[in-house]
Amino acid sequence: MNRRLLIAGLIGVAFAAAAYALMTPAPESTSSRSSVAIAVELSPAEHGSLVTRQRLAGNLEPAAEFQVAPKVAGQIVEVLADIGDSVARGDVVIRLDDAEFEQSVAQARAELAVADARLQEARSAADLATRRLDRIERLESRGVASASELDDARGEAQAQQAAVAVARAQRDQAQAALNSAEVRLGYTRVRADWPGEDETRLVGERMVDAGDTVAANTPLLSIVDIDQLRAVIEVPQSLYGGLAVGDPAQILPPGPDSEAVEARISRIAPRFDPESRRTRVELIVDNQHRRLAAGMFVQVGLESRRVDDAVIVPRAALVSRQGRQGIFTVAPDADTASFVPVEVALETDDRAALRGVDSLAGPVVVLGQDQLTDGAAITRAGQAQRS
Q1: Given CA atoms 107, 111, 116, 121 in this order, what sign does their dihedral have?
Q2: What dihedral angle (degrees, nearest 10) is formed by the CA atoms of 271, 275, 281, 282?
Q3: Residue 169: which H helix or E strand, with range?
Q4: For 351-366, how does the pLDDT look when each residue is reduced to its tens digit (9 = 90+)?
Q5: C-alpha distances out from residue 120 to 127, 166, 173, 265, 313, Å
Q6: Global pTM exceeds 0.90
Q7: How far does CA 277 lie from the centroid of its chain?
Q8: What angle do CA 45, 306, 57 make, to 5 degrees?
Q9: CA–CA gap between residue 358 and residue 135 (Å, rounded)
Q10: 64 — phi, psi (to 5°)?
Q11: Alpha helices, H only, 40-146
């Protein structure tokens, strides 16, 4: 019995040893581990400037806006420009009913003609009085005419000269009335005439239609200059001290495919709103490409920090090894990665500027770097691994 138990025990031990041997994997050789190359993706380093920006919400306004308004009241006969139309300085954009003003001009011309006739009549009478005075003076010198007749002739000549002066003044008055009537008639042709050097602008808004009756100085059209726009933002106290007129900025319109547009600070208000503790800042935006429009909501990126003349790498390349921050670089035609300790001067969402680094031996690893050690074998993504 004891012998049978002993044999059974030995068989069990043998089975257990065999099972353990099957379940334990064979150790991998050091040479096989070191021969595995890690696939990586590389990106070149750049040399230049890196900027971080503080984004604030803002609105775009036209750099210049001119409200077209009539100088006289009347009924609109025709609107000659509409929203989006380009107009040149001096173009007629609105016509008012001019029948009443034409009548005023005709009446003023008639009154001027009457004044001209009266002036001619007064001049003729003055000429007669002057000739009579000359004759009396000759007769009086020969003793034929009396002194009283000479006095009467002189008085008459003077009176007729005064009448000429009055008639001339009345004629000038009638001419002025005609000029005024013609000017008022011209006001029925409402023109787009703005100050400034730009010769063309766009109609930004139309407020009236043909048939409307408007009073003097009623806005009819808004003419805007959008070759330059004004971005307006409200800046908190924390950013105020770092701003200066002329500082660069960026305008980012809404939309997934929008591109940033360069701008510069043009005005900074010297006081803060006591409730919001913010101040108004204006920026000038070049809009020659016409991708922006007045009234747009935009994001304005104000420069908060800047590093110039630095080596710039993708932020994804940054790793940490044994408490040190660094990057992995791969020299041209090399099959190994080298760890380079670095000090980061400035980071953005996707890039980092390195301090104290003049150049790198090659591109940096941006994918696969988490598996690397200094001197590790690598293979570039898309390239067959060497045997």
Answers
A1: positive
A2: -110
A3: helix 147-186
A4: 999 988 888 888 999 9
A5: 11, 12, 16, 68, 94
A6: no
A7: 26
A8: 115
A9: 113
A10: -145, 140
A11: 99-141
1 band by pLDDT with thresholds 50, 70 and 90: very low
- The yes-or-no verdict on residue 29 having pLDDT over 80 is no
pLDDT for the residue 25: 46
How far is it, in rounded angstroms, from Cα 236 to Cα 182?
A: 56
DSSP assigned state of 218: -
Residue 378 and residue 359: Cα distance in Å, rounded?
A: 22
Dmax (CA) of the chain = 198
Place of tokens 């590389």: 42
85: closest CA among 180, 183, 165, 204? 204
In the three-class reduction of DSSP (H, G, I as helix; E, B as strand; rest coil), residue 215 is classed as coil
pLDDT given for residue 28 in this prediction: 43
- Count of C-beta atoms within a 10 Å radius of residue 140: 17
- Name the 3-class secondary structure at 65: strand
- Which pLDDT tens digit goes with each residue over 54-107? 899 999 999 889 999 999 999 999 999 999 999 999 999 999 999 999 999 999
Distance CA 78, CA 209 (A): 8
DSSP assignments along 2-62, one per residue: HHHHHHHHHHHHHHHHHHHHHHSPPPPPHHHHHTPPEEEEEE--EEEEEEEEEEEEEEEEE
Of the candidates 111, 98, 97, which has an alpha carbon nearest to the alpha carbon of residue 178? 111
What is the separation of C-alpha 156 from the centre of its chain, rounded to a whole number of angstroms?
Answer: 75
Tokens 């001209």 — which residue? 116
Q: Above pLDDT 70, what percent of the chain?
A: 89
Beta bridge partners of 234: 280
**All residues at 6 or more sequence positions from 34 whose CB lies less than 8 Å from its CB, including other chains:** 377
pLDDT at residue 263, as a whole number: 94
Please compute the mean of the pLDDT values over residues 297-308 and round it to a whole number: 89
CA distance 183 to 187: 6
- Of the pLDDT bands very low, low, confident and very high (cuts 50, 70, 90), residue 4 is low
